[in-house]
Amino acid sequence: MKTENNTGRVAVITGASSGIGEAIARALVADGHRVALLARRTDRTEVLVRELGNRAIAIKADVTDRDSVVAAAERVSEIFGPADILINNAGVMLTGPFDSTQRDEHRLMVDTNLLGAMTVTEVFLDQLRSSGHGDLINISSVAGRVAAAGFAAYSATKFAVNGWSEALRLELQPDIRVTVIEPGAVRTELTSHITNADSKKLMQESLDWAILPEDIADVIAFAISRPPRMTLNEILIRPTVQKH
User: Fold this and answer.
1) pLDDT tens for each residue of 42-90
2) What 3-state class would DSSP assign to 13?
3) Has this prediction a pTM greater than 0.85?
4) Does residue 126 carry a pLDDT above 80?
5) Residue 91: which of 47, 154, 23, 151 has the closest Cα?
6) Helix axes 117-130, 152-172, angle to 10 degrees
7) Do 86 and 124 contact (CB within 8 A), yes or no?
8) Residue 74 designated active-site
């Protein structure tokens, strides 16, 4: 059964349990949209739903598991109706020197950052098309523009997201607008998962001057609020003090 709150567009956010995804959810609900929060950690998204009210739902989904994404898409359609906005935010950043000791982490980044986004988009594509004015937002990174030592595998996934997004722009617009967001350093828990000690120390030092998840969320809310005649296809957002 669909909820009674039918106003606003329906947005699906992956990786919605913390950081940028959580901030996006708050920003879009504040703008009158309804949000489906997809994440593996539903304990966190359920707390967020209680805060946001009946404009939000929490759905357990793993972007590397297509069956769980298909089930999530069916639930979104059943409760809110088809998605108008898809925000591919789920990702991992496991930086460190490129060698065989991190091969499992390299594969995890490819599976999550690139193939996960492709899977979610493929599953929700018909819903976005049916809206008549869909928005696809892919969260990339400044590392998708500039590759640094220690970022080989991570940058590879983000360069790939940028190329994939540009091809989708040509394929899907004007029916579905495609926007790629390229954040620089953002104050989230992403760095806490890095296993290489030197790389982790370096990345956590950047948190002292990093921008906030809310800064990224505000930009995304602005982008999707633009009239259908225009698209902000690529947005690079860095702390003012960040050099690269």
Assistant:
1) 999 999 999 999 999 999 999 999 999 999 999 999 999 999 999 999 9
2) strand
3) yes
4) yes
5) 154
6) 20
7) yes
8) no
Q: What are phi and psi of 15, to 5 degrees?
A: 60, 45
- Cα of first residue to Cα of last residue in the chain, in angstroms, is 49
94 CB-side CA count, 13 A: 19
Question: In residues, how long is the chain?
Answer: 244
Asked if residues 53 and 60 have their Cβ atoms less than 8 Å apart, the reply is no
Beta strands 10-14; 85-88: pairing state: parallel
Distances (CA, A) of 244 to 98, 146, 167: 20, 7, 25
Cα–Cα distance measured from residue 90 to residue 75, given in angstroms and rounded to the nearest whole number: 19
Which pLDDT tens digit goes with each residue over 189-226? 889 999 999 999 989 999 999 999 999 999 999 999 99
Catalytic residue among 80, 151, 154, 159: 154
With contact defined as beta carbons under 8 Å apart, do 211 and 237 qualify?
A: yes
At 22, list the tokens.
């959580």
Q: Are 182 and 159 in contact (CB under 8 A)?
A: no
